[in-house]
Structures are given as structure tokens and as C-alpha cells.
Amino acid sequence: MRGNYINQLTGEKSQVYGALDKKTQRISWTIGQNIGTVFDSSLSDLTKEKTKVLVHYGHDDTIDMNLVRQKALKDSTTTA
User: Fold this and answer.
1) What is the per-residue burial (b if ≥16 Cβ within 10 Å, else e) of 6-35?
2) Residue closest to 38 by CA, chosen among 21, 22, 23, 16
């Protein structure tokens, strides 16, 4: 899994790195150089408009968060 992360509040941009476990269909990823925080979900859940994702902070702290699909913003620099 590869992609880009953009923090809408700060404008920070980072790479997303991840992998799929083909046997369990679980996908895990990190953002930027922060390998201490790992996001985890099932592959099928990532196709939904809204789903839960586990966020692991180190080995001992895990929380549930919501992952919500956002519609793409219309680019005002493109012409029709």
C-alpha cells in the first residue's frame, strides 16, 4: 500500500507506507517517518464510506478511530 497524507490544518504532506496480509486480509500502514503509530483495518472495510480503524501507539496503547471517505474537492485551476 502506498499513498499520500495531507494534513488539512497544517498543510503537512507525508508518504503512507503499508502492507496487506493476504491470508487474513488485514492491512496495516504508517504515515511518514512515524513508525511508532500503526493504523490497522480489514481490506474490505477500506472500500466503505465510513469504517473503524485501529490505531496502535507503540505496543501497549490501541484506540478505535473512524475512517471517513471524503469527496474530492473540485480543483479551481482546471478548466471544463
Assistant:
1) eeeeeeeeeeeebeeeeeeeebbbbbeeee
2) 16
Beta-bridge mates of residue 67: 51
pLDDT, one tens digit per residue, over 14-48 is 999 999 999 999 999 999 999 999 999 999 998 89
Q: Which residues contact 23 (CB under 8 A, 6 or more apart)?
A: none
Query: What pTM did the predictor assign?
Result: 0.78
| CA 47 – CA 44 distance, rounded (Å) | 6
Please compute, for residue 2, the number of CA atoms within 13 A of its CA located in the half-sphere on the CB side.
0
* 11-16 mean pLDDT: 94
